[in-house]
Design a protein that fits this description.
By secondary structure, this protein is mainly β. The chain contains no helices and 17 strands. GO terms for molecular function: hydrolase activity, hydrolyzing O-glycosyl compounds.
Amino acid sequence: MRPIFREEFDTLAASRDEIGPDARWTAHTPWNGDFGDARFMDPGPDGPFTVKNGILTITARKGADGKWRSGLLAASDPKGRGNAGTQYGYFEARMKMPRGAGTWPAFWLAAQRPTDRKRTTLEVDVVEFYGHKPAQYRTALHLWRPPPGVEEIHIDHGIDQKRAIPARWHRFGARVGPKYITWYLDRKPVWQQPTPPQHDPPLYPIVNLALGAGWPIDKTPNPVKLKVDFVHVYALDPDAPDC
């Protein structure tokens, strides 16, 4: 594999919704599909993102108005621009999950394309962590807008651990190949599914701290923090064996 995107978070180059010379990330999903019970905010002095000693912290906080605000970073924009996309490759993030019921952090992959072009796309959820189950995280595979005669795919899978996920840092990864998608925890495979043959556009990474997902947030700590050490993307050599 060859590295095509190495975000070490020595600084944060992010804009509201446009990838460019000064922005490797946008602060909202390109299709304007922000979700959950916390509003995703723009970067800035009072925003949810801070970087210190090579660590990104995304903070979810309830304001004086009683509303929650948090953050999301996507490595593409509504015009399909970004330098982190690859159709086949390995995607990895080193993260320390927050503690507390109602938290819903995630590292996931979406299809890189202009949002005005409706087409079949793949979504790979490398990790979704639900704070009310601290010793488990979820992985998932979704195929959206399949061609006629093909059903949508929505499969998820729980990865159970002996100790709470937030107790330490973990590497969450996914290898997307022409035949298989393999999910990894700390570089060890934990789940595998066939790659849908309809998969075509490049995939790019998204990392976020959402709240809710249908679960109550009345006991969520205020504030709550997700820490991210790095996000790496490697393109797969087309001659590499698929396993």
